[in-house]
What we know:
This protein is of the alpha+beta class. It has one domain (about 5-70, about 110-220): Sandwich (Jelly Rolls). Helix content is about 20%, strand content about 35%. The protein has four helices and 15 strands. The protein has a seven-stranded antiparallel β-sheet with strand order 3-13-10-15-8-5-4. It has a four-stranded antiparallel β-sheet with strand order 9-14-11-12. Helix 1 packs antiparallel against helix 2. The longest helix has 14 residues, at about 5-15.
Amino acid sequence: MYSCLDRLATHRKIASRTAGQPLCLIAMTAPYRIMQPDLFTPALTLPEGFLYQPEFLSITDEADLLEAFGTLPFRHAQYREWEARRRIVSFGGHYDFSPRALKEAPPIPTFLHPLRERLAELAGLDPSRIQHATIAEYRPGTPLGWHRDVPDFEDIMGVSLLSCARMRLRPYPPKPSQRSVHAIELAPRSAYVIRGPARWGWQHAISPTRALRYSITFRTRRLRPDG
C-alpha cells in the first residue's frame, strides 16, 4: 500500500539536501530548460492564459495538506463504464459522465480554504467564486488522458504535491494523430492557472507518473451555458 506520508518523509530529506536547486525540467518544443530560482529565468513558452508558479507552497504547507488527506474517501474516477486508475474526492459538485451532469457533493472543507484564497489571489478572482475542488491521487504509472475540463466550469487552478508530473498541451480541436505542442513539468508545491484561450482552445494530459503524486484542482462555475 502506498503512503503519502511515508513518501513525504523521503521527499523532505531530498528537499533539505537540494535546497535552492532546480526541481524539474521544463520541456517544450525547444530543448529542455531548467527552472532557476533567480531574476534571470526566461519566461516559459506556454499558451496564452496559462500561468505557472513554482514553489507556490512551502514544504510545511504540503505536509499539512497531505496529513488532511488521510481521512478522505478516495474512489476511482468513473468515466461512464470505464474506471480510471486515478482516485479522487470531489467537493462542491461531482460530475457524472453518464448523464453528463454536475451532481451534488459536500462543500469545500475548511482545510482547503486558505489554499483557495491563495489561488484566487494568484488568478485575480474573488475566492467566493471558487466553489468546486477535486483532490486526486496518482499512484506510480497513473496517467490522465487528453481532455478539456467539462463546460460547466470556467477557470481552473491547481497545485501539485509530493512529486513531479509532466503536463502536455495541444490545440483543441486536435488534428488527427496530433501530439503535444507544449509540455511542462509541474514541480512539487507548484501552482498553475488555466483560463481564457488556454482553457477553451487547448487540451491537456498528464503522462504516467513515476512516483506517488497528489493534485488539488479548484474551478469556478461557468457564468453562461455552453452554446
